[in-house]
Every structure is written in structure tokens, then in C-alpha cells.
Specification:
It contains 20 helices and ten strands. It is α/β, with parallel strands linked by helices. It has a domain of 276 residues: ABC transporter transmembrane region fold, CATH 1.20.1560. α6 packs antiparallel against α9. It binds adenosine-5'-triphosphate and magnesium ion. Adenosine-5'-triphosphate binds next to α11.
Length: 582
């Protein structure tokens, strides 16, 4: 019931259209009744009484009835489908904007393809149903009522006998519908898996081909496709079973009428015309019943899809803005981590008891073994996740009490795996600032040491970079993402340094670009390069989700702790090369 209400809410804005369409449908239904009614005068007046006037009037009547029917049907049918499409458009928009607003934990728990499938396939299932349902449900119910009136008008006893089969049909329809709903859900799940696999193999196509796994992936796909087919086949069988079964049940009603009604005609208790009109109405009446059973099936399929859609709609972002959030003023003194702990799901603590005072304008290098929690720590700053315990404060403002937009506005991020959109170089650099003049974009590109290669590209700043920027080299992509961060001109910068080895020249350019980027900003850099570590004001050494040590390089080396060990392990060779080069 809840589900119906929620779905119907999407139709509510279009109730005016709906009223017009329903009125047109009423006309169509009335013409069905008129068609059944006209049989009586045709038989009794023309064939039996041989009435000349009726011979002229009735054919004209038939044409007029069908004219009204045609117009009504066109208007009703097109309007109902448009209403269905409008509702679907709203559902799709609502779902997309809802998902965009969900927190990162939602995305890390699900496969991209499965999320896509909810917006495409599940919405499509509803779409397929909604247009049919609104149209047929209204039309066939009305037609059924009109025809019921006709049969009862002719002979209520006969009508009651004929309609005894209807409760039986209803029971059958309900049972089949419920089964269909279950199968339908399974079908949609199978399609979601299929989509997930598509996204994964196509984005990872190079790995697939490099490892010669095409056959394996094809086999896997084939298997999933087969699962989908199997479930779909079950759905088809259930769906197609209802109409023939209903018709067969209806045959008993009709047989009874021929037997009983025929006897009445023979005894002269009723006219041939009235009897045929009755039979005609009855035949016409079973058609809407069968149609309604299909509608019921469609509704069940739509409900299965709606359940899946509303499941997503009901997920609240874990990172939410406080109702009384204020706009965060520009960073003045610094950022404080106050006893911060964090836990993904119910795994071990990824961070525990982090206390850190970060001064404005300084560069903090985060170092530590893999899995120490460096990425996790920086992800808390723009509130990709919220701390499980403790707080992060910008100039004393808890970041959970300021608007998310004002917080993120001040933060620039350059991630380890650069993401570029399939758009022009210019739009990638000016992402989020589409109105920025080209001069400003160029200035950012120069500061990021990217201008030279951009100038050489076929269309300069208007060159398309390909999906994820695959038409560019790794170093070029990195410099574009640095230019993007320079464009944003954030007060706080988060850098997850790439570990991927660049050649010395582009390494040098990336290094210089980063130095340009870091000046005048409060910077958190997850450092892999020796030069970055040595240039940092403070080094924060992380281990097992804790801050093991922090301070400037010389102090930490003198303390002879974890940093010294790490430093020697990771960088002795690098140091040697630096020395050798000198
Ligand atoms: N989305 C996640 N869900 C559950 N656990 C996670 C998730 N992301 C990271 N972890 C776990 O949290 C811990 C810290 O991970 P984190 O990514 O912060 O390490 P890191 O210091 O950045 O390591 P690296 O230098 O290898 O990038 C690890 O044990 C990791 O397995
Ligand atoms: Mg990391």
C-alpha cells in the first residue's frame, strides 16, 4: 500500500491531464456499451420487424459511435502515455540527484554498474508498466463497469450466473501476480549484475587483454546472460499463463449462459435480440477482465522495480549538513584534529586518537607504511567521511557545523589516480568554473608546466582528452589535474602524490608544478618523493592508524625512531642517486 502511494505521488502533479484523459476514456467505454446495446435493435428491428427507418438509422449510428470512440481513444491513449513518461522523467531525475548527493561509503559498497542499472533498467521497467497501467487500468475498469450495466440491464439473473466465475479469476490473477513480482525482482537483479560486469570489463579492458582473459570474461558474461535469460523466461511464462487460463474459466460462464439463456429464448421468455446483445456484452466483458489481469501483472513488475528504486531513495547520506550550519569563513589560523578516530564499517579502527595542530600556510608531509591510514586521514578533511569520534576544526569551527559547500570550496584535491572528464583540456582545467576567461586557464596551465604540451596539441586548449584523459600521458594528466587545483585556488590543499614512476624530465616538471601549487597554501601531502618530504615544514609519521611521530626532518632523524627507519629503507637508494648526481 505504501509503495502504491509513493508511486502515485509521482502522478499527482499531472492530475489535470489525467482527468482529461479519463474523461476521454469514459467516452471510449461508453461506446463499448453502445456497441453491445445496438445489437438488440439490429436483430429485433431490422431482421425480425423489418423496420426500414432503422435500416438507415442504425448504420449511421454505428459510424458515429466509432467516430467518437476513435477520437476519445487517441486522446486518452496519448495523454495517458505522456503522463506515464512525465512521471518516469521525474523519478529518473530524482534518483540521479539523490545518488549524486550520497556519501562516498555508498559508492564504495556498490558496483558502479549496479547503480547505473537502477537508473536505467529499473526505471525502464516502471516506465514500461506505468504507461500501460494508467491507460489500461482506467480504460478497462470503465469498460467493465459499462458492460456490467448492460448485462444487468438485460437480465440480472443471467448476469449473476455469468459472473460467478469472476471471483475465481481474481484469485488466480492475484496468485500469478505475486509470483511474477518475485521473479521480476530477480530479473532486475540479474540485469544489474550484468551491467556491473560490463562496466568493470570495459574499464579494465587493457588488463583483460594483457592477461589474455577475453575468453574467460566472455564465458563469465555468457553465464550471467544465461541467468538473466532463465529468469526472464520464467517471468514470460507466468505472464502469459494468466490470459489463457482466464479465458478458459470464462468459457464456463459462457457455456452456462448458452445453456440457460438458450432455454429461455426457446420458451419465449426473452427475444433473440436481447439474448444476443447479452452474449455480446458478456464476451466483451471477459476481454477487459483478461486485460486487467495483464495490468495486474505489470503492476507487480513495476512494484518490484519501484522497491529497488525506493531502496536507494531511502538511503540517507551519511555525511549530512547540520540544519543550523554556518558558512565557513576563510581559513585564518589553522586546522586542528582533536582526538580523531575513524572506522570503516565494523573493521578495525583505521585511525585512532589523532591529535594534530596544523598551522595555516605550512606544508605537512604524511608518511608511513602502506595501510597506515594516510589517505583515510586526508579524506576526513573535506568530509568525504565523518570522524567516528573526535572532531576536525577549522579556526575552531567544527567542520560538521559548517555548510559542506563552504568547506569544500576552500579545499583543493589532487588525487593519486588522476581523473579527467571526456571533455576539452580547457573545460577540464576550469572544472567548476566554466565562466573563467581563457587567460586565467592559461595562467593556471603555465603554473602547472602544462602550457607547452597543450599548445602543441592539435586543437590547443580545445583538444578533447578522451575518456578519463586516455589520450594524454600520465605526466600530462597529472599536470592537468594540478592546473585544475591551481584554478580553484584553494586555501587548503590535499595532495596524494603519485607513486607511478615518471621519467626524470616530467618528474621534474610535475615537481615544479607542485611547488607552484603549494606556495601560500596549507598543504597536506601524502609524500612518496624525497624532495617533497625534505621541503615540507612538518613531517607526520603514521603507523597503524596513529601518529607515531611528527616534526621537521632533522628532529625526526635525530630522534632515531620510525621515521629514520622508514627514511633509510625507502630513500637510501634515492639519496645515493641524488648524491651521485651531484
Ligand atoms: N573503503 C574502505 N573500506 C574499508 N576499509 C578500508 C577502506 N579504505 C581503506 N580501508 C582500510 O583502512 C586502512 C587504512 O587505509 P588507507 O587507505 O588510509 O592507507 P594508506 O596509509 O593511504 O596506504 P597507502 O600508502 O597504501 O595508500 C587500511 O587497513 C585499509 O585496508
Ligand atoms: Mg593511500
Amino acid at each position: 500500500m505504501e509503495l502504491y502511494k509513493r508511486l502515485l505521488a509521482y502522478l499527482k502533479p499531472y492530475w489535470r491531464r489525467f482527468a482529461v484523459a479519463s474523461f476521454c476514456m469514459l467516452i471510449v467505454s461508453l461506446t463499448s456499451g453502445a456497441t453491445a446495446m445496438i445489437i438488440q435493435p439490429v436483430l429485433d428491428d431490422i431482421f425480425l420487424r423489418k423496420d426500414k427507418e432503422m435500416l438507415f438509422l442504425l448504420p449511421v449510428g454505428v459510424v458515429l459511435i466509432y467516430l467518437a470512440r476513435g477520437i476519445g481513444r487517441y486522446l486518452a491513449s496519448s495523454q495517458m502515455q505522456v503522463i506515464g513518461q512525465l512521471a518516469i522523467r521525474d523519478i529518473r531525475n530524482g534518483l540521479f540527484s539523490h545518488i549524486q548527493g550520497l556519501s562516498l561509503d555508498f559508492f564504495s559498497k556498490r558496483k558502479t554498474g549496479q547503480i547505473i542499472s537502477r537508473i536505467t533498467n529499473d526505471v525502464y521497467v516502471i516506465q514500461d508498466s506505468v504507461s500501460i497501467v494508467v491507460y489500461d487500468l482506467v480504460r478497462e475498469s470503465m469498460t467493465m463497469l459499462v458492460l456490467l450495466a448492460v448485462v444487468y440491464y438485460h437480465n440480472w439473473k443471467l448476469a449473476t450466473i455469468a459472473l460467478l466465475v469472476i471471483p475465481l479469476s481474481g484469485l488466480l490473477i492475484d496468485r500469478l501476480g505475486k509470483r511474477l513480482r518475485i521473479v521480476s525482482r530477480e530479473t532486475q537483479e540479474a540485469m544489474a549484475d550484468l551491467n556491473a560486469m560490463l562496466v568493470e570489463t570495459f574499464t579494465g579492458i587493457r588488463v583483460v587483454q594483457a592477461f589474455g582473459m577475453e575468453k574467460y570474461e566472455v564465458g563469465k558474461f555468457d553465464q550471467m546472460n544465461q541467468t538473466y535469460f532463465g529468469r526472464m523466461r520464467r517471468a514470460i511464462k507466468i505472464n502469459e499463463l494468466s490470459s489463457p487460463l482466464l479465458e478458459f474459466i470464462g468459457a464456463f460462464g459462457i457455456a452456462a449462459i448458452i445453456w440457460y439463456g438458450g432455454a429461455m429464448v426457446m420458451e419465449g421468455k426473452t427475444t433473440v435480440g436481447a439474448f444476443f446483445s447479452f452474449i455480446m456484452a458478456l464476451f466483451m466483458l471477459y476481454a477487459p477482465v483478461a486485460k486487467l489481469s495483464r495490468v495486474y501483472n505489470k503492476i507487480q513488475q513495476a512494484l518490484a522495480a519501484a522497491t529497488r528504486i525506493f531502496e536507494i531513495m531511502d538511503i540517507k547520506p551519511t555525511v549530512r549538513q547540520a540544519p543550523d550550519a554556518i558558512a565557513l569563513p576563510p581559513l585564518a589560523s589553522g586546522i586542528e584534529f582533536r582526538d580523531v578516530s575513524f572506522q570503516y564499517d565494523d573493521t578495525d579502527m583505521a585511525l585512532s586518537g589523532i591529535n594534530l595542530n596544523v598551522k595555516r600556510g605550512m606544508v605537512y608531509a604524511l608518511v608511513g607504511p602502506s595501510g597506515a591510514g594516510k589517505t583515510t586521514l586526508v579524506n576526513l578533511i573535506p568530509r568525504f567521511f565523518d570522524a567516528t569520534q573526535g572532531a576536525i576544526l577549522f579556526d575552531g569551527h567544527d567542520i560538521r557545523h559548517v555548510t559542506i559547500a563552504s568547506l569544500r570550496e576552500q579545499i583543493g584535491i589532487v588525487t593519486q589516480d588522476v581523473f579527467l572528464f571526456n571533455d576539452t583540456i580547457r573545460n577540464n582545467i576550469a572544472y567548476g568554473r566554466a565562466e573563467a576567461p581563457i587567460e586565467e586557464v592559461e595562467r593556471a596551465a603555465r603554473a602547472a608546466y602544462a602550457h607547452d604540451f597543450i599548445a602543441k596539441a592539435p586543437d590547443g586548449y580545445e583538444t578533447l582528452v578522451g575518456e578519463r584523459g586516455h589520450k594524454l600521458s600520465g605526466g600530462e594528466r597529472q599536470r592537468l589535474s594540478i592546473a585544475r587545483a591551481i584554478m580553484k585556488n584553494p586555501a587548503v590543499l590535499i595532495l596524494d602524490e603519485a607513486t607511478s614512476a615518471l621519467d626524470t624530465e616530467s618528474e621534474l616538471m610535475v615537481q615544479k608544478a607542485l611547488e607552484n601549487l603549494m606556495t601560500q597554501r596549507t598543504t597536506f601531502v601524502i609524500a612518496h618523493r624525497l624532495s617533497t618530504i625534505l621541503n615540507a615544514d612538518q613531517i607526520v609519521v603514521m603507523d597503524g592508524g596513529r601518529v607515531a611521530e611528527h616534526g621537521p626532518h632533522d628532529k625526526l632523524i635525530a630522534e632515531d625512531g620510525l621515521y629514520k627507519k622508514l627514511f633509510e629503507l625507502q630513500f637510501r637508494t634515492a639519496m645515493d642517486t641524488v648524491k651521485a648526481r651531484r
